[in-house]
Records
---
Amino acid sequence: MIRPQRLQNRLFLSLLPDFEYFYALLSRWRDPPGNTTLEEIRMKFDLKSMSRKELEKLKVDIDKALVKVTQKEMKAARDAAAKAAAAHGFSLADLASDMPVAKAAKKTPKTKSPPRFANPADSAQTWTGKGRQPDWFKSAIKAGQSPDDLAI
């Protein structure tokens, strides 16, 4: 009867040549398979020789892949947040219900300011007192009138 230890040794020795072959293959790789370089991508996809349809299909495929990766990362972040909340005895729903909800600011239409000054020579010309001074206001001030004299 063969002892279990000897059986394991025989099995290991029978697999050794295959292991050495795969080890030799693995040792030739400089980077792990997931780390592709820009040069490898260029070799795989020669963008200059691709037609417009091929490039558009590639773009659609890339967009789909980005959506999947984003969803995967969001799920991982959500799981990590749930784990952190659970470590403190809460759930994500508990934490989200306590957060204040930001209310959107109501946009009111801009009101027009009433005029504060009027041209004594032409009452149709008015000025609110904001922004650049009109020429008639400047000339009236140079002529010696005070802003109170021009007030409506």
Note: Helices lie at 4-28, 38-44, 52-87, 92-98, 135-142, 147-150.
---
Amino acid sequence: MPLNLRTGVLVVGSLDWESTIYGGAFVGTPDLVRSNWRKTRLKVDKRSTQYVRVPIRYGRLSESRGNTYTMVFSPELGSRLGVGKAIHCRNAVNEVDDLMRDARELWKAEQPKGNGMISASWGCVANLTSPDFLDDKDAAARTKLLEDWAEITREQKGYGVFAFSAADRTAAGDRLVIENGRLNIPWPKYRNHLPLSLDLVLLTATKAELCRKEHTARRKKSPARGKRTQRRTTIFATIGWLEFRQQTMRKSKNT
């Protein structure tokens, strides 16, 4: 009997604004690979895009985007959640091959020269399952799907082998933050705190890059000053992102 799992992709940062046209300040030419991925693999009706609360922050400099910050998932931010988008996949998942097909297409949108892989030194495709994922009459088949997924990720060279902060590891329950192909963060919730109405989501877990100086400064600052520093970092990252978008728009107008 088919599982017919309701699946989606958890989208944050440039994977969102480089894969569609929003108009206004976002005017520009979307990335063709990402745009095609969004049109062919995800549902495009408005009801299939849902805003959810997730633990994200600016955490990695992207050289390909003018050294602006990119988003990373960070378990330690469980009490200070950001907002992402859960976009429903076009096709239901019945077996691990279906799940891998969506994972490979997601990775191709992230790294076009991925050669069928779902990981690299800077990140990987991971999954999340709903809290009641195994509370179903198809529990055995669902368990096998997760076991098969975990086996495939173990075969991927260097999959998920990048460091997370001590606070991230603690928030993940003193476990690996990426374990058996799963990112150990809570299941996303809507803004009204109800759980996302999907069975499983895929996402791109990105390697964070924090310099030693930043860690030292955080330890020395008082809590109040630390909050001000965090706000300034977010502002600077946002300004950098806007500058990059403006540069992209000017180049597109001149070509």
Note: Strands lie at 7-11, 49-54, 56-62, 68-73, 82-88, 119-120, 123-129, 178-179, 182-183, 200-206.
---
Amino acid sequence: MAAADRCHQRLPIRLLADCPGLLGTVAGWLQQEWFTPAGHPATAAIEALEQRLHRDRAPLALVATSGNAPVGTASLVLAAHPLEPGEALYLSSVFVESTSRHRGIGRQLCNAAAARAFGMGVERLFLLTADQGHFYAGLGWEPCGERVTSVGSKLCFAHLMTLRCQAPSDRSGRRPASTPSPSRSETLEAIAARTHPRLAAGSLA
């Protein structure tokens, strides 16, 4: 096998529900990357993942493995719909272990999560990202506004992006309207106070 092929070798993507023995490792990644910097207790990631041990409904978590070792993860979680009342499905907690990056694993995880979401009948998937918009755009995601989220202990503006299962039924050729972006003259704290607390508190980790 050529070196280029090895760098982008397709890995098994498994449900965390089918390999619960990997929960501790995955929780350690998420705790260090998001939960601890955001001030959550040491058990927060484990508790979150224990709620994602579903197979055919959200919330659920996926794990990429190389041999028997986990190398990356992604989740599908429910949170406030950004455009209308109710809840929507979000891609969340996309993480690849440091020594396994730049091998296409993140792309595989995102695509597998999206395929699973659309297989459950979801027509539109969302995500929030502070600094990886270019990566998701390369996977077909489109920006549709801005929201407030947390990066570590700080509130920041994050890109709200969406991925559709299929083209909109509107044949007029017009792009779907974007959700309004918050005014940058408004303080982050004020925006967070009037938006859904789960988004402002960064619980999409």
Note: The longest strand covers residues 69-80.
